[in-house]
Each structure stands twice: as structure tokens, then as C-alpha cells.
What does this fold into?
Amino acid sequence: TPFVKLSGVHKTYEAETGNVRALDPVSFGIDRGHIVSVVGPSGCGKSTLLRILAGIDPATGGQVVIDGQEISGPVPNMGIVFQRDLLLDWRNVLDNVMLPAELARANMDETRSRAVALLSELGVGDFLNRLPFELSGGMRQRAAIARALLMRPSLLLLDEPFSALDAMTRDQMNVILQRLQQHERVTTLLITHSIAEAVFLSDRVVVMSARPGRVLDVIDIDLPTPRP
Ligand code: ADP
Ligand code: ADP
It folds into this structure.
């Protein structure tokens, strides 16, 4: 059974000018350790879907089950990376990545060595003491990914994490993320408007149409080389 299961999840926003159908009923699953991407043009409901899955925004109807539990609020132990990295300007890279450990009052020595290992694997090991403004956009997103993974989230949500980056950096980030996934095996939902990126990174691609956010197709990607 899939680790994440959405059944007939839909959303209508009530606005003064009338109701906005942000998402028509969607149903799909994410198997444990797999990456599922949602692709579609702007306004098709991708971010709405992500917020529902995060438990930030309630669905109007349908059911979201994560690890056998129907969600009804913010999902514990979840990692999120947005398009903008949201690093704290006044903290160095390592202290930014350590933030979730501080908030969770985790064992600092253990999590610090995990933070350093993750940052090294992501290629930012030489920048631990730098402040965010000293880093390129790609480096900052790597730090944001390390922060999201620090507490070994049961679910990782990536909301267009690379779309603010230039094409070359995006390619590099995709390769890094794919390699990282081979070790971390985290269950991931990736929102992107790049079909190429979705196909490159994911096990399954959910394709949405422009309006009103209907699912057009769910495509399972068969990779030429099987994953470990
Ligand atoms: P995407 O992430 O694919 O660009 P969104 O999920 O942000 O799409 O938005 C889907 C639709 O819902 C859009 O028509 C958008 O204008 C509308 N929408 C999003 N958030 C709200 C809101 N808080 N109130 C009203 N309408 C909203
Ligand atoms: P967009 O239309 O969003 O600009 P592109 O068509 O330029 O997207 O590229 C889509 C993305 O797919 C690229 O940014 C790249 O990161 C990723 N991608 C596709 N194939 C590969 C590959 N073989 N190696 C690495 N990244 C790839």
C-alpha cells in the first residue's frame, strides 16, 4: 500500500467574487521512498495540492492518508523546500540547517554530524560558516534541502525548488537530488512546471491541466537503469 494516498481530494476557495475551484478531485498514491511529481501550468492547483498534503490548508473534500493515518492538521516530521530558500540571513549555513534540531530539542551533537554530512554530500561542505548572502542561489537551495532532510522527515515536499535557478544550475541540482535520493530514500512530492525535470527525477508523474486543475494523466516512469 502506498505511504501517501490521496482519494478524491479537491479544493474550492470561497472568495468575495465567487467560489474559485482551485483543484478538482485528484487521486494518486506515493509509495514509500518514491518521488512523485506534479506538473502543470501556473494556476492549475499544484501549490494548493502541496498545502493540502502538508496539512497547512484543509481540503474541501476527499481524503489524505499518510502512513495509515488520515491527516487533519499540520503533518508532523515533514520537510518542505520552497522556490525561495527562506534561510535566516543572520545565521551561517550550518546554523540554518540545525534550526529544526533546535526547535525539536534534539541531541545537538548527533544532529550536527548529520547536518555536516548532508551539507558535504550536497557539495556545500566548505561553506558551513558562510552567511546565506555569500552563497549562490543553487548553494542556498542545497542548504534548504539539507535543512528539510535533517530530522529524517517521513515526507519531503518540494515546491518548485529549482525554478528560480538558471538552467545550468537546475541541471546540476537535479543530478545532486537524484544522487541524494539514492541514499536517503525519502518519500517525496515534487511540484514543478518542467516535464523534463519531473521525468528525470520521479517514479511517477501526475499531469494536470490548466483549468480547473483536472488530472490529465498519471504516468509511471520506467527508468532504463533500475534504482537500488
Ligand atoms: P499553481 O500552484 O498550480 O500555480 P495554485 O494552487 O496556486 O496553482 O492556484 C490554483 C487556483 O486557485 C488559482 O486559480 C488561484 O488563483 C486559486 N487560489 C489559490 N489560492 C487561493 C486563495 N487563497 N483564495 C482564492 N483563490 C486561490
Ligand atoms: P523548462 O522548460 O522548465 O525551462 P527545460 O526543458 O529547460 O525546462 O529543462 C528541464 C529540466 O530537466 C532541466 O532544468 C534539467 O534540470 C532537467 N533534466 C532533464 N534531463 C536531464 C539530465 N539528463 N540530466 C540532468 N537534468 C536533466
Summary: The CA atoms of residues 79 and 148 lie 4 Å apart. The beta strands are 4-15, 18-30, 35-39, 61-66, 69-70, 78-81, 155-159, 187-192, 204-208, 215-220. The longest strand covers residues 18-30. The chain is about 30% helix and 30% strand.
